[in-house]
Amino acid sequence: MRFKNKIAVITGASSGIGKATATLLAKEGSTVVLNARKEEQLEAVAAEIARNYTSPLVIRGDICEALTLDRLVQKPLEQFGRIDIWINNAGGGAPAKPLEQITMTEWNEILNRNLSSVFRCCQKVATVFKQQQYGRIVNVSSLAGRDKSLLAGVDYSASKAGLIGMTRHLAALLASDNITVNTVAPGATLTERIAQRWSTLSPEAQQKIIDTIPLGRLGKPEDIAPAIAFLASDEASYITGAVIDVNGGCFMS
């Protein structure tokens, strides 16, 4: 198994891409550390993984809060003695608004949730990885950061583009310590949040979006998780600063 004896932290693990990634890593031998804000959903994911694989460590809380981040680093170290993999999946975005209607409060909230919080996570875990001389960081960006968002606004696109730039810079900074930093950029994926937004669109609007996707469908969380797992594995030990686009062909770099 690719992740036998590996300790993997996954943020935003209560549903969608985070849940699919945590389940895949656990299936392949990892002990997973699950974080999210929604306690009931998070506990349900943990119970499902425990039934089928190894019992996970659950650390509920908002990753934008310093106390949550401190616990998310310290508790795995106390219990397992190390962290090997860190998946920055938590984030969010609001439905697109006209440019002139986006307030600075909304702008700052999206940038904090999708970019600043990821920076703080990387900064914190990099200290651990440097001591170990080993670590894998995988950031979850978006098609919105490569091209434009199909369902969210300019604030979301800016935050996800910033995440790609930060990934490349961190990859260069941390490479000498045997730490890789990479990004997966999913297209529109039927997570719980996107499914709710999708249901509000007319059939015509839905078809217009589908027509922009060469493979002719929205993604599923299970389409994205294998790319994240690959970058977190030792199979990708010579890859850093990369972006893997998993978007049905919407963006071809």
Name given to the CATH architecture: 3-Layer(aba) Sandwich
Q: Calculate the terminal CA-CA distance, rounded to whole Å.
A: 32 Å
What is the overall number of helices?
9
Largest sheet: 7 strands, parallel
Structural class: alpha/beta
The CATH first-level class comes to Alpha Beta
The strand line-up of the biggest sheet is: 3-2-1-4-5-6-7
- Unreliable parts: none
Classify the helix fraction into a percent range.
40-55%
Number of strands: 7
CATH superfamily annotation? NAD(P)-binding Rossmann-like Domain
CATH topology: Rossmann fold
**Global outline:** globular
Give the domain tally: 1
**What is the CA-based Rg, rounded?**
17 Å
Query: What letter string, H or E per element, gives the SSE order?
Result: EHEHEHEHEHHEHHHE
InterPro entries: NAD(P)-bd_dom_sf, Sc_DH/Rdtase_CS, SDR, SDR_fam
Family: Belongs to the short-chain dehydrogenases/reductases (SDR) family.
Protein name: Oxidoreductase, short chain dehydrogenase/reductase family
Pfam family, one: adh_short_C2
